[in-house]
Amino acid sequence: MTQKLNIIQAITQALDQKLADDRRVMLLGEDIGTNGGVFRATDGLLEKYGADRVADTPLAESGIVGSTIGLALNGMIPVAEIQFLAFLYPGLEQVLSHAARMRHRSRGEYTLPMVIRTPYGAGIRGPELHSESVEAFFAQTPGLKVVVPSTPYDAKGLLISAIEDPDPVLFLEPTKIYRSFREDVPEMLYRVPIGKAKVVQEGSDISIFAWGAMMPVAVSAAKQIEEERGWTCDVIDLRTIYPLDRDCIIESVKKTGRAVVVQEAHKTASMGAELVSLINDEALMYLRAPVKRISGFDVPVPLFALEDDYMPTTARVKAGIAETMLF
Amino acid sequence: MIIEESLRRISSEPHEDFYQVLTPEGELLIPIDGMIDNSLAVGMYRHMVYARTFDRKCISLQRQGRMGTYAPFEGQEAAQIGSVLALSDDDWMFPSYREHAATVTRGQPLQTVIRYWKGRLDGGVGYREKHILPPSVPIATHLLHAVGAAWASRIRHEAAVSIAYFGDGATSEGDFHESLNFAGVNRLPVIFLCQNNGYAISVPFNKQSSSRTIAQRASAYDIEGIRVDGNDVFGVYMAVSEARKRALEGQGPTLVEAVTFRYGAHTTADDPKKYRDQEELLAKWRKRDPIHRLRRFLEREDLWDERQESQLAADCTEQIDQAISEVLSLPPEQPEAMFEHVYAEAPWHIAEQREELNRILRKDGMQS
């Protein structure tokens, strides 16, 4: 049995089913109770599970992440919601200095099965600091896993895997495509494995790597470039950005010999840079052109009047593909 | 009620005033019948002497180059041991890095403490059996972990409290305030045990805050606050016992300010003479010493004598030397230990980096 759901509905369903499935699971965050979350991801869950399991917290992100750590230490499986990725900054110390390190520093004596869910990225006409894509910060944090779904099916399956994961997971939700399309999502509780990328479309001329809200851009660029120029693209959704699915990435590059990375994050020291480096390490001799990054710019994400110019567009991705193909 | 009375005192009396049971002269101000029996009183004394002995020994190990930087606690034994003895086995304990008197009294092996300050990964453990977390190095962050753990206990209706240990400097951090607020709003069974030793490294409390006391911050969150003589092991024990009882009755958190003094440096890396008049302060605080006052009391009650004292000193030395020699004779940690426990299961890059280091070590013959 399946239903047509968008990403936000798939997330709500994953939370609902895990709350029903495991007494240890609980949600906490700002406005997640009566209000159902600023994006309605927790809509209806307070009524169903009560205030002990769907808890509104004071407005304090360090408090949310820090108490999430304590809850996880003492037998709960907490899923914290942070309203926007940039609002996690006050809780960064808790993420970096404690959540990611607890298992290592205590030699496995204490572990933290916990999830931090947060919307990220531009494209929703948000105010200042509601549009950041700083996932690379967290890929510098051993001990943490970073997951970014781009479809309703993956959103549900990855969130369930994140909740069941024995280690802390940062679950980044692409705000721009929360409600932009629906697809068939199984009603049952299922898992999409963390650490596995997905080949969304197969091709032989060039590999396109993307994640989150850049997936629809990458796919549409691939389709157009095939129609216009006849080049076929291997399009790969990373889904987990830390740890990366090396085998999938390298296999694709070995097949095509060319690659572009599409990301809305800033260009310098980004996941895109990491992919270039990984391909350099593992598939240099297969390359027929330098790996290209089509990226957000190295400027603060602008206010929304200019956000469309900041973000990679289909046109920019196509231009990047052409440049790589014609190198 | 101890706490209500103490709160009244905080709001109406001078700066130095606090709740006290045992005076520096070893006299009781309040009866302890039914709260502290003879064997507990003697136990407190033994624990304090043991802790002071190993603290001094750790400093000397550091001076000899056999241990890394160390954070001494001499002077703060009553605050740590009085509080930890008021807990039960199921309670959760979140220490900072100066709480070895408390953690060892609760059962953590002294070997763990020494391994930690020798920079070994295997010293980073807490003590799971008694719900002791590893020491928190960032300031005040672990108060929120105590809040979360207490929250879990409350959700499951368990009879357990969480206690977080921190210093006066920590009360300037945002996480301190977020913790009091979270615990207050959810009425969580948490005890915030602040050892106000007067100095955050070199900064005296009057430069730390314009608050007259730390305990008074509790009233801003409408939670309980008590200011206790932190060098009075009976007073600390009774204040924490009361806070624990209230927490288990669902009356929420308590902020305990234990007023004390660290005799020595912040860590072995600084010199207190640089930032305070050590001679004058030591003269003042040694008169208030936590161990001496309890000894006076025990001797007056015929619970302690010179023979027991010298036996205790010999026992402490023997046990501590044994622990030290065990740690010093441990084989060096294997470099691959750093690759363990990053995740439940090592991802490919960590597994490969471990192999890479192993190859280098084998090739260079560096692995002993």
TrEMBL record, chain A:
The keyword Oxidoreductase applies. Its cofactor is thiamine diphosphate. This is Alpha-ketoacid dehydrogenase subunit beta. InterPro entries: THDP-binding, Transketo_C/PFOR_II, Transketolase-like_Pyr-bd, Transketolase_C. Gene3D superfamilies: 3.40.50.920, 3.40.50.970. SUPFAM superfamilies: Thiamin diphosphate-binding fold (THDP-binding), TK C-terminal domain-like. It holds the Pfam family Transketolase_C. Keywords: Oxidoreductase, Thiamine pyrophosphate. Residues 5-180 form the Transketolase-like pyrimidine-binding domain. It comes from the Bacteria.
Automatic annotation (TrEMBL), chain B:
Transmembrane segments: none annotated. The keyword Oxidoreductase applies. Its EC number is 1.2.4.1. Residues 45-335 form the Dehydrogenase E1 component domain. CDD domains: TPP_E1_PDC_ADC_BCADC. It is an enzyme of class 1 (oxidoreductase). Keywords: Oxidoreductase, Pyruvate, Thiamine pyrophosphate. This is Pyruvate dehydrogenase E1 component subunit alpha. It comes from Alicyclobacillus dauci. The gene is pdhA.
